[in-house]
Write a structure and sequence with these properties.
There is one protein chain. The N terminus is likely disordered. 32% of the residues lie in helices and 15% in strands. The chain has a five-stranded mixed beta sheet. Strands 1-3-7-5 form a four-stranded antiparallel beta sheet. With 344 residues, the protein is α+β, with helices and mostly antiparallel strands. This is the non-catalytic component of the active enzyme, which catalyzes the hydrolysis of ATP coupled with the exchange of Na(+) and K(+) ions across the plasma membrane. InterPro entries: Na/K_ATPase_sub_beta (IPR000402), Na/K_ATPase_sub_beta_sf (IPR038702). Its main location: membrane. Keywords: Ion transport, Membrane, Signal-anchor, Transmembrane, Transmembrane helix, Transport.
Amino acid sequence: MMESNLTRDLAEDQLHAYCLPNADGETERKQEVTQEEEEVEEAIEHNPLETEDLNFDKWKPKPKPKRTCRQIMADVKKFLWNPESQEFMGRSGRSWSLILLFYASLYVFLAAMFAACMWALMWSISPYNPTYNDRVVPPGMTMSPRGDGFHITFNASDRSSWESYVEALENYLEPYNDSTQELRNIACTQDAYFLQQEKEEDAEVKACQFKRSWLGDCSGLQDPDFGYSQGKPCIVLQMNRILGYLPGYGTPVNVSCALKRGGPEILGDIEFYPKNYFSLMYYPYYGKLKHVNYTSPVIAVRFEGVQLDTHLRVRCQLHGKGIVNDSPTDPFLGGVSFSLEVGA
């Protein structure tokens, strides 16, 4: 009996010593556990990757299974109208209403702003007297017919070579017909500027007549061929229109034609119709809204004795106060240049 009790006491002491160690025992045990963990981590770090870990194919996304046409159409149909959520193209009726309302308001606002800007612009400028005039002063000069790149080349005996020039002149001078001028414009006799500034801004002003018959042999009335069938061609010169411009500052602007190179005998005699200057009574020009029937004055030039089968470079230019005819950058400022070659 005493031996059994002694054995039991020894077992309890051993169990108590194992479960409740002293402080030194706990410290040693913790150090052993920490050391074991460090050894495990070092083993993991130095352990090379397995071959299975290097197989990157297993990380790639798996291909999606192919869908049939019926499945795709079913998804499209569901996208267009989803009966479960009552949505059209992924949005509810409220969402679509808000979007349409927003864009309608936006475009109405933009249209109103654009209309207001246009109204302010039209209110601030005058259609009769523009704030900025893009026409240059002094004026330039144009001619008819122009030919192909201001080249007039023909044979007097070959009608097909000059017929286009005659048609161009006929069309150009059609508004100058005497009957048309008498119907639309008034007969002016004064050799001074025709000023009409006392009228209201929107009032229509009168225009002086310029009759086609005044061009004489270059009118196309006596000679329907304008001299081309005789080897004596005509051209028509016009000074560019400039709003409110008074050419010559009280003195008529005149015109001269000469060769760029060569003597005057090669070009021969030159005749001007009706005169070699622009009368002052056709100026100033008040614009197409006020000068409705305005007809620009012209000067017809007839070359009587051009040397045949010779390529000539001719320049006709303006002369007068405030006129510039020698601009190196603009050959049409104050004049016009063209080539002329007449064959038999």
